[in-house]
Amino acid sequence: MIAARSAPEVAAVRAADRTPEARGVARDRVRLLASSATGDADRSFADLPELLEPGDLLVVNESATLAASLPAEGPFGRFRLHLSTRYGPDLWLAEPRWSGARPGPLPIPDGLRFRVAGVRATAVARFPGIPRLAFLRFDGDLEAAMARDGAPIRYGYFAEDAPLAAYQTVFATVPGSAEMPSAARPFTPRLVRRLVRRGIRFARVVLHAGVSSLEDGDDVTGAPPILPEPFEVPEATCRAIREVRGSCGRVIAVGTTVVRALESAFHGGEVRPSRGFTRRYVSPAQPVRSVDGLVTGWHAAGTTHLALLRGLAGEGIVRRSYARARELGYLWHEFGDSQLLLPGSGRPARGAGAYFALERPARARSAW
Amino acid sequence: MTGRRRLAVVTGASRGLGAAIARLLARERYDLLLTAREPRALQAIATELRGMGGCVATRSGDVADPRHRRAVAAAVRGRGRLDLLVNNASELGPAPLPPLVDYPLPALEHVLRVNAVAPLALVQELADPLAAGRGLVVNITSDAASGAYPGWGGYGASKAALELLSRTLARELAGRRISVVSVDPGDLRTAMHQAAFPGQDISDRPTPEVTIPFWGWLLHQDRTAISGQRFRAQADRWELPA
What is A8-65+163-365's CATH topology? Predict the structure, then answer.
């Protein structure tokens, strides 16, 4: 994901520099702004069951966060290696950094050999357009190295040395994300039980999020704005989506990773079983067709996340709700507060009765 | 890591996409047999890649020439097993690209020979070592194979033929555990692309290195799972069959 270019509004937001637990807030008690076409309501994440309707479907990302930040040593000294995406048994896309707070590029020419947490690594190739990212080949057990010496990736604005468990969501079962799929972080077993009792259904996808720390100066012109990331949308999820659509429920993605996975699996008018790598970019120019709503965090200006929100909800709702969240002192970033975006609700029925009022305008707009 | 080093054959490897693929394969520790028509350019890339520590052999010649193909096959047979064959060498045809109604037929036959017959002939020559290595054949194709773009009819017809050969070979060779895919690399800033647009500025096209992430992905997929597929290296997703 592309990071903010120092936009003026970035300074105005409050970043969560610690976990909610360290702030004295339970995971499921972070603030939640419920945003629809008609307005924004300042609620708690624990209110989610009442904000949804029986028959709604929440689609969650099962990707678990890796201890992807590893100590490394090259001919120029010690540095930090952030693993981003696994391409093969021994091949990773990774970001060598001077430290968590200090990005590269580091002097690592193709072919250079160095050590990462005791494992031998060889630089294979630069990522096109983003020379700070390199494909690396490892000779050794990187999973053992992560278990032994790895730490979750942490950037400069986050002050707490939180354990890997703080970076896992309740749905995390498939290790592979360099950065936490953070939208689902506030879900707790207790909240999931309340949602299920309310008649909310769950379905799963996997999308392993790579590093998001593209910085000023990256040449992204002509390069895709999102790195290729592994994803899988299983048949059971497609079936659940079909059933929910058939009964007028809403499909609500938990996180932008889920939207990108579902959009990547959207063929011929519906979500189909799909797996591979995706760098699908969702924006107003390529709007969302697969979901009706989104549970997400608060994203920095200029990011691809924000473009996705505009592609889902439209410029007006995003602008209005972001202004409201700033006024209310919401906390930004992956350990901050949340938003429930249901752009299609709150609209007046358009002449065809309640049944069709539940059909989203975006579906009517799509090609089929 | 111990064990046998893998062997890859890349045709048209002296420049452009073929050189970019060869570079990645060398870093991925493949031994290489590289071919191209121009011996000097071929030697230059081989010298560069030998600096990476691998074994790099060359055979200069035209893939449309049966003697050249036999020389390639003889070199591979010495190793016994072939892991990867990249049929990258391609012939654009006359430039500027003539409309079909004016297309010189000898030139069309040459385009078909280089782009469709020669890749099949190499698969025929190398089938045994490919089977021994559970090899993957990558045939480089183009969106011209289906685009019906004016001027691209000759080149496009050759690539359409190549894609059907690929899909059929994938089925026919599944029992011998040889996998076959087509890859459309997308528009690239290469000598061939420049020849198709003489006098035009093509600097807005990306260099062949833009396809490196795709090759990194493709080479680590389960080969039997991808066999018969067509991929677009610059697409926003690389999908495995359901």
Answer: QueA-like (3.40.1780)
Distance CA B200, CA B65 (A): 32
Q: How confident is the model at residue A9 (pLDDT cuts 50, 70, 90)?
A: very low
CB proximity B203 to A under 8 Å: no
Range of the domain at B114: 6-232
Please give the structure tokens belonging to residue A314.
């439209």
Of chain B residues 16-45, which have a CB less than 8 A from chain A? Answer: 23-24, 27-29
| ipTM of the shown complex | 0.91
Q: What is the CA radius of gyration of chain A?
A: 21
Q: Identify whether B159 is part of a domain.
A: yes
Indicate which CATH number applies to the domain containing B65. Answer: 3.40.50.720
Question: What secondary structure letter does DSSP report for A345?
Answer: T
Mean per-residue pLDDT of chain B = 96
A91 inside 8 A of chain B by CB: yes
* Position B241 in a domain: no
What total number of domains does chain B contain?
Answer: 1
The residue count of chain B comes to: 242
Which residue from A139, A102, A106, A98 is spatially nearest to A122, judged by alpha carbons? Answer: A139
Q: Which A positions 119-148 lie with beta carbon below 8 A of chain B?
A: 122-129, 135, 137, 139
B48 at A interface, C-beta within 8 A: no
Give the mean model confidence (pLDDT) for residues B210-236.
97
| Percent of chain A whose pLDDT exceeds 90 | 75
* Greatest pairwise CA separation for chain B in angstroms: 57
In the numeric block, which tokens belong to residue A56?
Answer: 């709604």
